[in-house]
Design goal:
By secondary structure, the protein is α+β, with helices and mostly antiparallel strands. About 20% of the residues lie in helices and about 25% in strands. Strands 1, 2, 3, 4, 5, 6, 7, 8 and 9 form a 9-stranded mixed beta sheet that branches. A hairpin with an 8-residue loop joins strand 2 and strand 3. The chain is globular and about 60 Å long. About 35% of the residues are buried. The mean pLDDT is about 95.
Length: about 250
Amino acid sequence: MRYFIYLEFDGSAYSGWQIQPHSPSVQHTLEESLALFLRHNVSVTGAGRTDAGVHASEMVAHFDLDEPQECAWMKNKLNGILPPDIAVHRIVPVAPNAHARFDAVSRTYKYYVSLAKSAFNRNYSWYLVNEPDFDAMNKAAELLLSTVDFTSFSKLHTDTRTNDCHVTEAVWSPLDDNRWVFTVTADRFLRNMVRAIVGTLMEVGRGRMDTGGFSDVILSKNRCSAGDSAPAQGLFLHKIIYPDNLFLIQK
């Protein structure tokens, strides 16, 4: 029996989602917790990777069990075992061939910036000493909607077969007087892609690059021409969408 598990996590204490030797990961912590109450090892496959320090409002993963189990019972057991910085929202049965990574229709990330220093929000946003030009950043971000090859915003030397992505949303919006959020949705994302985009858009917002320069970065297909990656703590994996026919019951 295959299940999708929906969870959130604070990535501050983890090396990322994926298991890594000698470093704590969300995937490893989840697998250990499942094994503890199911009394056998359970392999969990996530919808994608997140870098060290990156958070998730919604991560999805799948796992298989030989015998079906009650979903609410599993959720409650896991939430009683997992550390406070990981919480399970729900567990749902899915089709036997459903895949958390390859069947995702779209993913949405949000990147938060703050214009006021906060002792409590420092692990969940990028504090900007000077306010950038968000209108200019939005004009540049519109170019992402017509871009296909995102090599300029990809981590170097990855094992992906293509750097093609289709972005359907890319916009900066105010949350209040001191906070803004960049929302970006696509069918897939490359490693470090959102942080590289945000870092390059910030060059536009600070007047160091105009919209034409941002277009040149895209066309160069060269990561070295883009800006530095934005800090990890402002980034959240926000939403993952799947076809309804994967689910055996209503989500």
